Task: inverse folding
């Protein structure tokens, strides 16, 4: 009895309950801090149950200690063991005088415990440079995730991402206890997985440009570029991910988004010849014919091999954004629809159900994008990925489908973070605060619907990646972190997070961890004010502040308030290692002029979107066909324009598609003699600090085709002199 009392006293003294966790992301469910610290010495060992060898070895990559199997007689070690009483992904981490004990409900739980332990160590642990010995405070953590599915989708199609980069990405997801990686392996722009029975799929479909039948997009044209995963590389990645408790769910996006497949095997398309003249010779159809049995034979080959590479029981078979007009023109699809009394949605479900049957033979179940359930006839075996909005996610759950919730307005990390940063904006413009606020209950999911929410996922679609790559090698990390930290928090806890305390964790601890992980994340912009002739800038995250003065591109370090009464425009931003913030500046820095302009071209304009739309600075316009060498677009200003910068672009606003693939830009002061100023890059050109007023700009195409059948024309972007 006395002993027991002593024990209770020890527990009370050692662990004072309720103290805030040590800035761990995601926040553990229960964290009790103790008094004292355990010293990890160079002689400390990592000992483990036989089944946990890979978890122990991975820990040793960060904390360089000897690894050996568990021995009851030895004390003072880091012990990894399974405890079947815990939830599968749950763990208990105890740090006390006797050592460090990580118990997990399975290897996955142990992995999660190891990740928490790493966060309790100095952040240098992540750069494999933590000096030993190191003291780690006594504590007891009891933790388990709310959602079994905490996912991220990586689009390696639009922009090819090398295996080593994918591995680094996986490692960093693992540090955030994300446990699913949905790999988007096929799309209109590429096929990224080797299929041995159909080697052309990746050998041809993995590359674009330079005469490849897969039309180049997003800028590059005359260069062959791309890549794919060999099966061997992919198996290695699968294994690498598995050790890190990440299940890879591969996606082949069908029956739409299949332009690459269709360029490699044109027979997969519907049974009619499109008007190739109107399409300028390019067959841009990207939807598989549903009526051809040979398509299912081909897909069986693909999925048979994929089933062997990917141990996951899930295969994502796509189902988004299907251009059904192609089926309506196909005699065979039409006959099938009439015969079975199906509309386009039902035909899509018919297709998905047939593919589901195929993969079932190989022990797999289908994942689909939310549109695939629209007819109500899709197999209930499917797991639905709700991407369009919350309503679509709720619809899937209420129809009884296990649902991965990933509405674009919260979880599409290809969205821009503020108006003037790179990225799409179709779903929303948001920073890390938005995904952190995602709360299933507040989003209106009823209990019944909630029961079908398997978890949350975020995504990085990569069509805008290429266009930023040259000057912005950190684009992928800038877009995804710290937004992934927020995903990690809400997916683990199953509810929305509170911003202030989360931000404190980031600034106090997690920023330095991310730096050591090699993540060039996005910082918040500094606060800037101008008062009584003094420009002041500050930050609350210990970053260094820099500034530039418009018109003088030198970078200055901000040290103290700047006294100025000159009419100049300053842009402030911050940096910390590879991380940086967007710029803060007066609106004037981005303010545009709209001088009267007339746009003409050697190419006829589109009837629906004539050039007059672009002249009005409100809308974009189109040509009636794609460019050929020698074609030009001419922008003539009514009055010669004085400005600090002028940008002329072809292509969509945020996407270098529908462009002049190559060409040059010329400027004229009088409207008749032109001087060449630059080559086009991604369909556009820039004139910085022109010395004389500009009367006209001409862009000239030097290369035919762009994989589509028109060129998008935008209004000139004219920046005023400061
Ligand atoms: C929608 S998400 C798409 C993708 C794009 C993305 C851009 C989905 C199922 N389809 O094809 O890349 O938007 O944000």
Result:
């Amino acid at each position: 009895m006395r002993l027991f009392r002593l024990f209770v006293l020890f527990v009370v003294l050692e662990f004072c309950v309720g103290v805030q966790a040590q800035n761990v992301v995601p926040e553990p469910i229960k964290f009790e801090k103790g008094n004292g610290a355990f010293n990890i010495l160079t002689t400390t060992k990592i000992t483990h149950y036989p089944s946990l060898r890979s978890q122990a070895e991975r820990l040793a990559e960060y904390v360089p200690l000897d690894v050996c199997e568990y021995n009851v007689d030895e004390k003072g070690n880091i012990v990894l063991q399974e405890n079947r009483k815990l939830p599968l992904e749950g763990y208990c981490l105890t740090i006390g005088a006797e050592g460090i004990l990580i118990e997990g409900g399975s290897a996955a739980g142990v992995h999660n415990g190891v990740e928490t332990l790493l966060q309790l160590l100095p952040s240098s642990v992540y750069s494999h440079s933590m000096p030993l010995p190191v003291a780690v405070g006594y504590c007891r953590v009891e933790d388990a995730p709310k959602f079994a599915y905490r996912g991220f989708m990586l689009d390696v199609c639009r922009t090819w991402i090398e295996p080593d980069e994918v591995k680094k990405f996986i490692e960093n997801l693992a540090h955030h206890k994300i446990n699913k990686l949905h790999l988007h392996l096929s799309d209109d722009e590429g096929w990224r997985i080797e299929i041995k029975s159909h080697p052309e799929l990746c050998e041809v479909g993995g590359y674009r440009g330079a005469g490849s039948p897969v039309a180049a997009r997003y800028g590059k044209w005359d260069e062959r570029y791309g890549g794919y995963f060999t099966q061997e590389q992919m198996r290695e990645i699968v294994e690498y991910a598995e050790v890190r408790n990440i299940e890879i769910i591969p996606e082949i996006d069908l029956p739409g988004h299949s332009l690459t497949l269709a360029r490699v095997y044109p027979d997969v398309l519907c049974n009619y010849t499109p008007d190739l003249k109107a399409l300028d010779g390019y067959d841009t159809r990207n939807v598989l014919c549903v009526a051809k049995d040979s398509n299912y034979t081909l897909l069986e080959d693909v999925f048979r091999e994929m089933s062997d590479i990917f141990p996951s029981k899930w295969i994502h078979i796509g189902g988004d954004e299907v251009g059904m007009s192609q089926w309506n023109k196909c005699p065979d699809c039409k006959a099938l629809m009439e015969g079975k009394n199906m509309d386009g949605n039902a035909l899509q479900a018919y297709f998905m159900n047939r593919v589901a049957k195929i993969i079932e033979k190989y022990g797999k179940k289908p994942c689909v994008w939310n549109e695939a359930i629209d007819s109500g006839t899709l197999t209930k075996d499917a797991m639905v990925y709700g991407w369009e909005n919350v309503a679509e996610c709720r619809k899937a759950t209420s129809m009884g489908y296990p649902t991965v919730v990933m509405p674009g307005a919260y979880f599409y990390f290809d969205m821009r973070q503020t108006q003037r940063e790179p990225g799409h904006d179709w779903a929303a413009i948001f920073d890390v605060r938005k995904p952190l606020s995602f709360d299933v209950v507040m989003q209106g999911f009823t209990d019944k619907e909630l029961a079908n929410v398997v978890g949350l996922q975020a995504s990085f679609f990569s069509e805008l990646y290429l266009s930023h790559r040259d000057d912005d090698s950190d684009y992928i990390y800038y877009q995804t972190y710290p937004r992934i930290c927020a995903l990690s928090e809400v997916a683990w806890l199953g509810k929305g997070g509170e911003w202030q305390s989360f931000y404190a964790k980031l600034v106090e601890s997690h920023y330095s961890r991310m730096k050591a992980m090699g993540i060039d994340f996005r910082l918040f912009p500094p606060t800037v004010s101008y008062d009584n002739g003094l420009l002041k800038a500050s930050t609350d995250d210990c970053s260094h502040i820099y500034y530039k003065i418009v018109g003088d591109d030198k970078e200055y370090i901000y040290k103290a308030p700047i006294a100025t009464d000159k009419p100049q425009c300053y842009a402030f931003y911050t940096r910390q290692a590879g991380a940086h913030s967007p710029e803060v500046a007066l609106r004037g820095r981005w303010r545009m002029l709209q001088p009267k302009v007339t746009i003409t071209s050697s190419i006829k304009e589109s009837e629906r979107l004539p050039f007059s739309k672009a002249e009005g600075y409100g809308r974009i316009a189109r040509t009636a066909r794609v460019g050929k060498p020698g074609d030009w677009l001419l922008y003539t200003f009514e009055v010669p324009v004085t400005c600090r910068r002028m940008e002329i672009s072809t292509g969509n606003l945020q996407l270098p598609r529908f462009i002049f693939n190559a060409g040059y830009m010329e400027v004229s002061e009088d409207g008749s003699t032109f001087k060449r100023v630059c080559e086009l890059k991604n369909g556009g050109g820039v004139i910085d600090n022109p010395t004389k007023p500009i009367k006209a700009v001409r862009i000239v195409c030097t290369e035919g085709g762009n994989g589509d059948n028109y060129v998008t024309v935008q209004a000139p972007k004219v920046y005023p002199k400061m």
